[in-house]
Amino acid sequence: MQYTIWLTYACNLKCTYCYEEEEKRNLYLSKAKAKQLLAYIKSRSITYSDNDISIVLHGGEPMLNYDILCYIVKEVKSWDSNVTISMTTNGTLINEDNIEFILENIDDLSISLDGVAQVHNANRKYKNGKGSFADASKNVIKILERKRDTIARMTVTHETVGNIYDNVIFLHELGFRFISPIINQYDAGWNEETMAILEEQLLQLTNFCNHQAENLHIGMLEKAKYRRKSSCCPGMTLNIDTQGDIYPCVYVVGDVRFKMGNVIDGIDKEKLSEINHINNKELEQCKTCFWKDYCHGYRCKLLNFAISGKYEPGYAACRLEHALLKTYKQCAVCAE
Fold it and tell me: Looking at residue 313, what is its pLDDT?
């Protein structure tokens, strides 16, 4: 079972593509609320005989609530369960005082780094407008010296899509073996021209991985290659916000229309049933698509809603699926 815990909505950066609302920025998880949510998670794991627990520390920038981060980690590490802890950070707040704790206790660490300095700094800026690349990359080098499986989380917009190949190569040369390019679906600038560029960049990357870099793992390409039938399943992944409220999806946290309960009263079964009904809806525009049972756009109806106010996948989600499928087919033919 996976539990995503929101340590804070606050962030020390002001990225151009951040989807968090400004009015939530000063909310932090308190120690009292942290105790309640840990008690809830532990009780639930006992009730359902769940000995494999995944804890995702989320934000905002989770390192801004470092004391509570440490408290949660120490508590769950003491449980008689198999607990895996994950965290995504912008990397700027890593320092000599906290790097040891992070490296020793965070099992799956992702750092948001978009590529070369010019690309990264265009979007990932401090609130004063200064780019964050110098601080983040300095800390990345220290981390990669000791934790080689650290993941680079690389956000891609329609403006940076033509740099995907160069940015991945740069991150690989920096020391990353695991790179996860993420298409920003909130970006309204995607069109056929930029999607064609995406396809060309993905093909270049696939050829590079196949012939020159066997130890490089690119999340987007591997997900396309090993896609399975799946559906969104609220109740199997729970998101707990700074107030202890429970939501089914990271993208709708804070939207009370999708609140399923809280860590004191538990999950409202009627609300869970309502959300499951949404996720099981047949979408008219997808009815005849052979790929729909494998498609993230079809599966992630709450993400679609967060982006557009509709449960149907938007242009970027649908076109991305076809781009990934096309890339995989082209590479399969080349390999024959």
Answer: 94
Residues 6+ apart with CB under 8 A from 116: 163, 166, 167, 170
- Side chain identity, residue 6: W
| Of 221, 231, 249, the residue nearest 332 (C-alpha) | 221
Q: Do 182 and 153 touch, CB atoms closer than 8 A?
A: yes
Pair 17, 155: CB distance under 8 Å: yes
Pick the CATH number of 2-225 from 3.20.20.370, 3.20.20.70, 3.40.50.300, 3.30.1360.40: 3.20.20.70
Question: In the chain, what are the domain boundaries?
Answer: 2-225
Task: Answer left, alpha or beta for residue 258, where phi above 0 means left and psi between -120 and 50 means alpha.
Answer: alpha
Name, in order, each residue with C-beta under 8 angstroms of 293's C-beta and a sequence gap of 6 or more: 229
Give pTM, 2 decimals: 0.93
Number of Cβ within 10 Å of residue 44's Cβ equals 17
Q: How far apart are CA 228 and CA 48, in angstroms?
A: 26
Place of tokens 């895996």: 84
First to last CA, the chain: 40
What would the pLDDT profile of 43-56 be if each residue is shown by its tens digit? 999 999 999 999 99
91: left (phi over 0), alpha (psi -120 to 50) or beta: left
